[in-house]
Specification:
The complex is a heterodimer of chains A (431) and B (137). Chain A is α+β, with helices and mostly antiparallel strands and 431 residues long. In chain A, 78% of the residues lie in helices and 8% in strands. Chain A has two domains: 198 residues, Four Helix Bundle (Hemerythrin (Met), subunit A) (Up-down Bundle); 131 residues, Heat Shock Protein 90, CATH 3.30.565. Chain A has a five-stranded mixed sheet. In chain A, β2 and β3 form a beta hairpin. In chain A, α3 runs antiparallel to α4. Chain B is an alpha/beta fold. Chain B has one domain: Rossmann fold. Chain B contains five helices and five strands; from the N terminus they run βαβαβαβαβα. In chain B, β4, α4 and β5 form a beta-alpha-beta unit. In chain B, α2 runs parallel beside α3. Classes of the chains: A alpha+beta (431), B alpha/beta (137). At the A-B interface, α4 of A face α1 of B. Bound molecules: adenosine-5'-triphosphate (ATP) and magnesium ion. The site of adenosine-5'-triphosphate has 17 residues of chain A, from α8 and α9.
Chain lengths: 431, 137
Amino acid sequence: MTRSGTRRRGRAKGSSLWTLAAALVAIAMASFAGANRVGGEVGRLERAERLSYLLEARAYEQAALDSRATSSGALDEAMARRAADIRQELTAALAELAALHPDDPAVRRVRAAAVDWQATLDTKLALLAAGDLVAANRVDRAQVDPGFERLAALLRTTAADYSRAASAAQGRSKAGALAVVVAATLLSLVLLWRVERARSRQRSVEEKARTDRSRLVNKILSVTERQRSGMAAELHDGPIQGLTRLGLSLERGQLRLRRGQLEEGSQLLSDAQAGLAAEVQSLRRIMATLRPPVLEERGLVSALCDYVDMVRQQSGISCTLAAKLPERLPEDTEIVLYRVAQEALTNVARHARASRARVELSETAEAVVLEVHDDGIGFDPAAEQLGGLDHFGLAGMRERVELAGGTWTVWSRPGSGTVLTASLPKALVAA
Amino acid sequence: MTATGPAGPAPRVLLVDDNHGFRHELRLLLEDCGIEVVAEGENGQEAVELATRTDADVVLMDLRMPVMDGLQAARALRDQVPSLPVIILSAYEDPALKSEADAANAYAYLVKGCSALPLLDTIERAWASRSGGASRN
Ligand SMILES: Nc1ncnc2c1ncn2[C@@H]1O[C@H](COP(=O)(O)OP(=O)(O)OP(=O)(O)O)[C@@H](O)[C@H]1O
Ligand SMILES: [Mg+2]
């Protein structure tokens, strides 16, 4: 009960850890993506700034070439090629700028101004080529020059605007990067902390398991010690006293016989004989509690049959055995089941105030099952805290069965009797 | 096999054991051998009281007893009635217990189950040693 409860809570903690980690990773990724986006924008803005400068420079160059052409009347071949290159560069730069910032009205204005200016330039060149110098000069002053000025001014402000925007974006990108770093650090700290906490929890669980185990071992040892001293006392007060006393009465019998008091002597001898039989009986009882020979010789069912008889005689509880086992079981299985039945019946006799008890042995395809029922006062197994300091029986039984790879359960409720079940796998049998 | 000794025809014994059956059987045997059991006690405390109230020559006492055990009683007797020999008759064949009994000045440490002869012999010798020393009467 308690154990599975602990496990469930552990799982909930685990999943909340993963949720937290996922959230932190998401935050970090979002900040990273944001920083990336801002980073890209910085790049675009900076490029736009550079394009603006380039456009401005090329526009000046073209204007210079143009004024040279105007003053000299015609362009030589090299200058004409250069003019054509510049024109191409201007067009390409404008196209790139438009592609970078398609929605920026400033870009649209620059483009329009450039197109206008180029158009007036073309007009002027056409007039020059046609030899209409006056008209060309008029177009130059009225349209080409102001067009150039407008374009240059626009490009200057655009460049300045892009430069400002770029540095602002750079700041944002730094903040984004900082956010990523902070989130990552936080994430690793939190993860570290959780991992450390999980580890220390694990350690304390292991620690507890260790102390539980050593407590159990100590208990087993002290119970063994207690049983031994009990056994010693039983031997001292029982057979030793009895047999020494018999020795004395045999001495007396011998004395009588030697003195020719035959009747008294033989009476003493036959008394001693009866006493001896009683002592042998009591030694047998002690030996049977240590290790019933019948268990080895005739198997679990016979041994339990004897034990149930003894319980019936000693406690007055109507105790029966129902066994459906066709054959002998492996030695280890028989011993475990015998001890469990013994301990369970001891509890029935000591605590249950039962009028009836029933021991059942049966087998399934995979297991051998022992059940001990009683109709006594029952108890609350949960409140009993299996393995409490002075109560060893239930915890010991369970430990024994589980060590043998089986399962052990006790069902009881105050007022409803008790059913104790121990089931041992047959596989253990083969092993 | 009737014993005679310097302090009288036979030793008078104080018998102390918590096991009634054993005490009874031992008394019968001792009496069969002409040894008088002047009193019986069930524990060490009774042993000390009876030793001062009766004219026992020898105390025959078990070790493991309730209220006061045989060793405590032997020490008390050593202090209160130093001339009275105490024979310990124990179920334990244990050197540690034997040396404790020696320290309490017990005359002998016998293990229960020994046959009657050495027991009677020890009682006789204890009685003789007492008669050789200061008399209580
Ligand atoms: N068949 C039963 N009917 C009623 N109460 C029981 C029964 N079996 C166990 N109990 C209760 O459970 C408690 C624990 O039992 P457990 O066998 O572990 O220890 P114990 O019998 O008290 O001591 P020991 O260590 O000597 O066995 C008992 O003290 C008793 O109150
Ligand atoms: Mg018990």
